[in-house]
Every structure is written in structure tokens, then in C-alpha cells.
Amino acid sequence: MARKNGKDRGIVEKPAGSGQWWVRLYENGRERWTRCDSKSQASALYHRLKEQVRQGVLLPKPAAVPVVRLKEYVPRYLEQLPLRGVKALTVATYRARITKHLVPAFGGSPLHAITRPAVKEWAAALLQHGLDFNTVKGLALTLSGILTQAVEDQVLSHNPLLRLGTMLKRPSTIADEELPCFTPAEEDVILTAAKAKPGPAYPMILTLFRTGVRIGELLALHREDVNTVSRTLHVRRTWSKWRLSTPKSGKSRKVDLSPHLLDVLRAWMDVSQLDAAMGEHPCPPMLFPGGLGGTRQAPFYYSENAFRSTIWFPVLEQAQVSRLPVHAARHTYASRLLAAGVPIKYVQAQLGHASITVTVDTYGHWLPATGSHRPVDVLDREEMAAATGSKTGSDRRENV
User: Does residue 289 sit in the same domain as residue 348?
Assistant: First the structure.
């Protein structure tokens, strides 16, 4: 140990001349004091503690953390996802993101060497190369999930990518109005064009515009999901990439049906039942059975690509409107409800969002304007009404 003024710094009389002796050691950068009855006792204790320090008994050196690279940890991460209840389709999405973007960028880096500034610079480069902001954010969230799991597996001390919202900001060049959405007039001409097309085009497209269901949820609907008594649609499964799964939120939901949509769906089911009876084959359980991969006797679910290529885009072309994705019907549904003053909590329940925050963040700019009268104006109106009221009312206000 070092000495100061010719005296051992580890044995101290404190206060000076008091006869009280202390042993002082440094432990993990902090001082640790032990009181002794005499100087000889302090000296013996000090030398014993110094020997324990040298042997690594008193202050053992921290165990070396193994260096684990991202590409080495990824298989372990992916194997644990199904055990945590992550759906197979979501695992496939994560695997694609990791293979295409994360491994080329950070695969050779040790997990502890992946820093917040490095990820921020990488994300900025992806945005500059034209990648969509939501795609980049999804990639960063996937990387953050990997690091969080690594912390739980004790191969990483902390996750530097927590609170991504403070690190990734949506570019100001992306306006809210760019969210794909049809105007009411465009929706009318689309439905008119769909009605002129034979087959399930009109009931399928009307269901999209009147319920806001996702494309996979539409294709996975069964006849039994339509409740004509309660006027609801039970959304409890989705069909995507040739598999049935639960909806995106992992929970089923019941969506209200408008009277016109209910009439259209009831008529469609009657036609399907009659067609099956005439063909002498069982009526399929699917509300909108597709021919791809099946026959009239053994129908199959519609594929997303078949719906887009044979129904959606041909109808849009006939209606002479913008070639927007199918999901634009969901945005249109939400925007029209909110513009009509429907409570946002109701819209959240209809859309199946896990949190109302998602609904507000996505569709909040569509909340209706209040014109010249704003909600706060009611306070002045109440004050003016009170001022013209009785004196007793004024007295009550002063006492409140």
C-alpha cells in the first residue's frame, strides 16, 4: 500500500490523538472503514486484509464476460421467440429483418460493442437511401429486442437501445396526409365498380370499407363469424402466407356491421348456399372461399396475391382512382368514423388496436375540427350565463 508522510495510509488514528484506530481499504472505488480498539489490532487486521486482497478472497476480480457476437446470438434469440408466445409469422418477419439488414450491419460486432450512436447513424443511412421510416423503426425495434433478450440471458449488461422514441424521430418531410386513404367520393366509385363485377368482389370490398378489417382477417372469415342477430362480425383469425393464425393483436374482437353490409353479406351467404346445393357439394365454411389451391368440392382460402390481382386492383383501375394498397380501405374506415365525431375509443375497439395510443398516433390528425367554436369556449359561455343569473348564484360562485 502507498504511504503518506511516512505513515501507512491504511491505518489511521481518527480523530488524531483520540486513541481510536481505523483500518481503511478501497473496495470497488469506495472507501471501507473498520474500527479497532488499538493500533496493534488495527495493524494485524490491515495486514490480514491486504493478504486476502492479494489472494482475491476479499475483493475477487469480476468474471470475464464472454464476447458474443450478434450473428452468434441470433439463433438463440429466434429459438426463444415461440416459447414467449410469438406467432410463427412474426418469427418469420424477424428472421427476414435480421438476415437482410441486421446481420450485414452488426453481425460481426460483439453485443456489448453495439452502441446507441452507431445504431442512430445506421438508421439515418437507411432513411437516406429511401427506406420507409416505419421499416427502419421496425428494424431498430427488432435489434433492441435482441439486446433485451441478451440482457435476460446475462450475456449483456444493459440494452443501449431502450426508449427508441427519443432516438428515432419521424422526418419532417413525411406528412400525416401521406397515409394512404380514399376520399368519400373515391370510395363511392370503387364500390360502384365492385358491384358491377361478378362474384365476391362487392361483398369483400364493402366489408373492407365498412369494418376496417385487415386483408388477412377478411380472407380468414367464416360464415359462422357473421352474427345476423347482434349485427356483428367476429374477427378471430387471419390468413397470411398460407397459414391460419390469430389476429395481429393476438386477440379476437367483434366488429359492428352496418345494416347495408349485413344485408349484402346475408345475400352473399344465401347465394353461396344455393350454389353448393345445386352443385351437390357441401357449402364451404369460409365466407369468401377462393379457387386457388382448391376446387368447388374442396375450396380453399383466398390468397392475398389472388385477391389483389383478380379483384382489388382491377376494381381500382375500372374506378379510375389511385392504385392504393388494400390497407387504405382500413385507413378510410377509421378516418370517416373520426371525421363524423365517433369516439376514438370506439374506433380503437373496432380496429383491434392493443392500445388507444396506437389509434391516436395513427389517426389523431383526422379528429374533426370544431369550426369557429372550440371546446374551451364553453367556459366563457357558462361564465356569461352565470353573470346574467341571480345574485344567489354569484354568491355561490364566490364561495366555491
Answer: yes
